[in-house]
Write a structure and sequence with these properties.
The protein contains 5 helices and 18 strands. It is of the alpha+beta class and about 300 residues long. It comes from Candidatus Levilactobacillus faecigallinarum.
Length: about 300
């Protein structure tokens, strides 16, 4: 049975029962569900299908071959994990999930893929004829990657994490572009296989992206700051006759918040470079004049 599992192979129908055909390949017999076959197969007929051992430890064959095969990579969805074994991945087989060994997963279990995460894997058959999932390495991702475009600066992207390193996190976007997230551009380290949402803070000449998982400055402000910003945006000529020197009573009457809350809101907006304060008034910084926030510097993916 060596070199039969996890591949598309050809065999001949040798028998059948009410639910299955039996296809023999190099002396090994595989079950083929009749529910997959529209036109009945005759004994002796040739059939090509994908072979595997199902969860009941039966040799099975399917015409609906998954993308992930021996020496062929495809995306699979994590369905569960098991501390002493690894993670189980659904690659599209009706009665079999593929295990990615804990030996190939991060040392910290909290960084293991969770249910719903995605992994790009191929299959390998071990000496006991068991199929295991093999994670795609950097070379595979580089081979399938598409170059990013220069006009993607500041764009939002969705990406899947494929490599965790001390220097940062490597991801592949939904459009198959390669991205890098420096530790300074995230609040936490994402899991292997996790789908993350990020923004482009740099586009390299070779077509890779620097990404940030941190919110934009205006997205990071609290409710009071957002209310103050909205007041400025709707004010005449983009300014208000208030400052951190205004009286608590005037602030409470106009904004409905305390002076302490007001001063904190001003501080957030000043730090975000969305407003200025001078001549006893608050002024909105025009969008085309706003300086880039400090967290929008780029880091090298090298």
């Amino acid at each position: 049975m060596e070199n039969l599992l996890g591949r598309i192979v050809a065999g001949n129908v040798t028998d059948e029962n009410e639910t299955d055909y039996f296809v023999q390949v190099a002396g090994t017999t595989f079950r083929l569900s009749k529910s997959e076959i529209k036109k009945p197969l005759k004994t002796g007929a040739s059939f090509r299908g994908f072979t595997y051992e199902n969860e009941d430890h039966q040799m099975a064959m399917t015409r609906n071959a998954p993308d992930a095969q021996v020496d062929h990579y495809g995306w699979g969805t994590v369905v569960r994990n098991q501390r002493q074994l690894g993670v189980f991945v659904n690659i599209g087989l009706p009665d079999k999930d593929i295990v990615v060994s804990l030996d190939d997963l991060p040392d910290m279990m909290e960084l293991w893929p969770q249910k719903g995460d995605r992994l790009l894997i191929a299959l390998r058959e071990d000496a006991k004829h068991r199929l295991w999932g093999v994670l795609a390495d950097t070379d595979i991702y580089q081979a399938i990657a598409q170059p990013a475009k220069k006009d993607q600066q500041n764009a939002n992207v969705t990406a899947t994490v494929y490599q965790l390193k001390l220097v940062g996190t490597r991801v592949m976007t939904a459009n198959y572009e390669l991205g890098f997230i420096h530790p300074s551009e995230r609040e936490r380290e994402p899991r292997l296989g996790e789908e993350i949402h990020a923004r482009v803070i740099g586009v390299h000449d070779e077509g890779t992206l620097n990404l940030s998982m941190k919110p934009r400055a205006y997205e990071a402000i609290d409710d009071d700051a957002a209310m103050l910003l909205a007041s400025l945006q709707h004010s005449k000529e983009g300014h208000l006759e208030f400052s951190d020197k205004s009286s608590p009573a005037a602030i409470k009457a106009y904004f409905g918040i305390s002076k302490g809350q007001f001063k904190r809101a001003i501080g957030h907006l000043l730090k975000a470079r969305l407003i200025t304060q001078h001549d006893g008034e608050l002024w909105l910084v025009p969008a085309d004049q706003a300086a880039a926030p400090a967290d929008e510097t780029t880091q090298s993916a090298d």
